[in-house]
Write a structure and sequence with these properties.
Blueprint (H helix, E strand, L loop, with lengths): L8 E2 L2 E2 H11 L6 E4 L3 H7 L6 E4 L7 H12 L6 E4 L9 H13 L4 E6 L2 E2 L3 E4 L3 H5 L7 H7 L4 E5 L12 H9 L1
Parallel strand pairs: 3-4, 6-9
Antiparallel strand pairs: 1-2, 5-8, 6-7, 6-8
């Protein structure tokens, strides 16, 4: 992108603030945000009141290192699952988040994925049973390698939310998001 995705704007807020607001509207708590590249700049530029901010000094190793940083911070907290939100997927609706959490609570499993018109998206729920495998990943492996191994234990939830499919990876995708 050439810019910090966390600070790109969507509907009057930064991507990061948009996601945090969505989680608040869905009554998710606690909310942990893992920052790496330009962490202090992002922290100063956004309103993260009531959010636990974690710094990932190993961010250059990739996204998996940030996920691992967040899981380690949870430690023995007894959390049954996490809702993994990627900063470049800012458009999921609070109702979608609630549906994913509800599906996990109704029937705890390895994970819960949202599906819109037959295609998976984000955010995703990852059950505690997968935490050790994710923590054991090398920095070059994505968490999806673990979730694929446990596909039979993963639930898919159909949602009427095209926002789960929006992934802002380049200026063109950001431009298309701004048109919506």
């Amino acid at each position: 992108m050439g810019r910090d995705k966390a600070l790109l704007t969507y509907r009057g807020r930064s991507f990061l603030e948009t996601i945090v607001n969505t989680l608040r509207q869905a009554h998710v708590a606690p909310i942990l945000v893992v920052l790496g590249h330009h962490a202090r700049r992002i922290e100063r530029a956004t309103n993260l009141e009531g959010v636990e901010v974690l710094l990932n000094p190993r961010f250059r190793l990739g996204q998996t290192s940030s996920l691992q940083r967040g899981l380690r911070a949870l430690g023995g907290s007894g959390v049954e699952a996490i809702l993994l939100c990627l900063v470049d997927h800012p458009a999921a609706a609070p109702a979608t988040v609630r549906a994913l959490i509800s599906a996990f609570r109704e029937s705890p499993c390895a994970g819960v994925l949202p599906v819109y018109r037959g295609r998976r998206g984000h955010p995703v729920v990852i059950g505690r049973a997968l935490f050790p495998e994710i923590l054991a990943l090398s920095p070059t492996e994505g968490a999806d390698t673990v979730t694929r191994r446990h596909r039979e234990g993963t639930r898919e939830v159909d949602v009427d939310d095209p926002g789960i499919r929006i992934d802002v990876d380049d200026p063109g995708s950001y431009w298309r998001l701004k048109l919506k």
